[in-house]
Amino acid sequence: MSSEAPRRSDATRAAILRAARARFAQDGYQRATIRAIAADAAIDPSMVMRYYGNKAQLFAAAVDVDLRMPDLAGLPPERLGAELVRHFLHRWEEDPGGDVLLTLLRSAATDETAAERVRGIFREQILPIVVRMAGGDEPEAQRRAGLLATQMLGLAMCRHILRIPPVAAMTAETLVDHVGPTVQRYLTGER
Questions:
Q1: How many other CB atoms are there within 10 angstroms of residue 63's CB atom?
Q2: Which pLDDT belongs to residue 6?
Q3: Would you tell me which of 17, 114, 148, 172 could form a disulfide with 108, CB atoms 3.0–4.6 Å apart?
Q4: Which residues neighbour 190 within 8 Å (Cβ) at sequence distance 6 or greater?
Q5: Domains in the chain, start-ordered, CATH in brackets?
Q6: How does pLDDT run across 71-127, given as a tens digit for each residue?
Q7: Residue 161's Cα: distance from chain center in Å?
Q8: Is residue 38 within 8 Å of 51, Cβ to Cβ?
């Protein structure tokens, strides 16, 4: 009996997270409600509160993003930008977690909680890579990492949320060819 309870608990948590991701993607953080998420998961709202505490904690769990940044150390320096663009395109378009990234991006445009989560991902996952590449020069690395974020988040926004026709229609490799050199400059500090 005790082995059945954890499985039921895991299934309930997973159902809540699926419903929350869909609801946050559809309604954004502000308009999404615990009641609507619970209804989508076919459970009582008290269960959402039991497992996640409140809407902010549920949102944090629903958009827990690991970018799984590639190890760029072994790559030839001239391929860094292209590989990073390719990595991000793969995460958004082919990886099951890509929808979570896009949900977070949609929500960040209108909600400070989501925007802070994006800033946290930037600080925790992107900035350390650029700091290493900048030889530990933190102010320079912050500038370069910030510019890198403008390219990658702008690309995601234009391709997947706004669906700007030329950008949405390009193949991934065409985007790598066009955006990779810009990202390369940001990573290496070359002008």
A1: 25
A2: 57
A3: 114
A4: 184
A5: 4-62 (1.10.10.60), 77-188 (no CATH)
A6: 888 888 889 999 999 999 998 888 766 778 888 888 888 888 888 888 998 889 888
A7: 13
A8: no
Burial class, 52, CB count within 10 angstroms (exposed 0-12 / middle 13-18 / buried 19+): buried
Judged by average pLDDT, the poorest of 43-52, 55-64, 93-102, 119-128 is 93-102
- Candidates 24, 25, 44; CA nearest to 35 is 44
Q: What pTM was computed for the model?
A: 0.78
C-alpha gyration radius of the chain: 19
Q: Give the Cα separation of 72 and 126 in Å (integer).
A: 12
Q: Taking Cα atoms as reference points, which of 139, 132, 172, 140 lies closest to residue 155?
A: 172
Residues 104/63, Cβ–Cβ less than 8 Å = yes
The token pair that represents 45 in the structure block: 């709202």
Q: Provide the 10 A C-beta neighbour count for residue 9.
A: 12
